[in-house]
Amino acid sequence: MPATTALRRxxxxxxxxxxxxxxxxxxxxxxxxxxxxxIAPGAKKTDGLDSVTIGxxxxxxxxxxxxxxxxxxxxxxxxxxxxxYAVFNAGPSEIEAxxxxxxxxxxxxxxxxxxGYTKADGKNLRIVGGSASGGVKLVVNPEKIKSVEDVEGxxxxxxxxxxxxxxxxxxxxxxxxxxxxxxxGKGDVTLVxxxxxxxxxxxxxxxxxxxxVPEPTASQLVAEGGRVLLDEASLWPGRKFVTTNIIVSxxxxxxxxxxxxxxxxxxxxxxxxxxxxxxEAKAAANEQIxxxxxxxxxxxxxxxxxxxxxVTDDPLAATLAAQADHAVEAGxxxxxxxxxxxDLTLLNKILKAEGEPAVDDAGLGVG
Length: 367
Fold this sequence. Notes:
Blueprint: H1 3-15, E1 32-33, E2 51-57, H2 63-70, H3 73-78, E3 82-88, H4 91-100, E4 105-108, H5 110-119, E5 125-134, E6 136-140, E7 155-158, H6 164-175, E8 190-193, H7 199-205, E9 210-214, H8 217-223, E10 227-231, E11 242-249, H9 250-255, H10 257-276, H11 278-293, H12 299-308, E12 309-311, H13 317-329, H14 345-353
Parallel strand pairs: 2-3, 2-4, 7-8, 7-9
Antiparallel strand pairs: 1-3, 4-11, 5-11, 5-12, 6-9, 6-10
């Protein structure tokens, strides 16, 4: 068989198709149900539902969900319908929960959404809104790497074979003329696929010379003495690229559009509040991280991580399409059919009512 086909099949076996998955917190952990939220007296149910379960990750890249939970925006929007929360450490497990119906709507990275959508032949989810942009950096050991040219010949960590940051590094390296075998990671630069939870230890021990990683791992490496050599935002038009989206089960969207609209309205309201109260929002997010992950982030990690992220209602659809293209060009993904992955109808309805401009689906919306 052709070499590219063999490579893609090998990758499918090795990673079970978590290609492009956003590795903000690692993989394989189970969701934790956060229990009931307070409901205001006299409130009415939305769409007649007893509850809506919202999924997200317990880290800063899911700031809207963290703050919306902590400050009660979602519960307020849903009225007497209980807002329940399920916190994940892995994109694939959140997609599984969405597919099984145990999660109705969720915050997730673009790549698990791509994988989930393509694996289900476009029948399981829709991206209905945006949430965050940015927050990915190349952090290096300044004693070993003083310039971009010094990256050649070094050992650079990425979170996982074929994940979003892995693909981004391969695309960037290819643009510099460096050759790297995408499967083995060997070449002009050696890629070390390392879970974000262990990468700081690998960096501290010297077994890797740098890492292309999302927040808060990037800021953790800086706290260990690393230096930011490159902010991925500098590679994108307007310094914006999708980090976190809002997805919903197609079944839930069809049957309960009022509930989806309520959650989206709360998301937009939360983002406005975050922008207006950045310090208070950062504190609220960290309080919820402590509840969800068991430990708050220290200030020397939280502050720069928070600064590098931008909340946004716009799903930045063109950048999701570009990320998929980069994976195809790297030989890590067959050209996916993403038509219909977006349905921004409800979000644009909300934005119009707020006097805000509509957001674009880059031609990948429902027909």
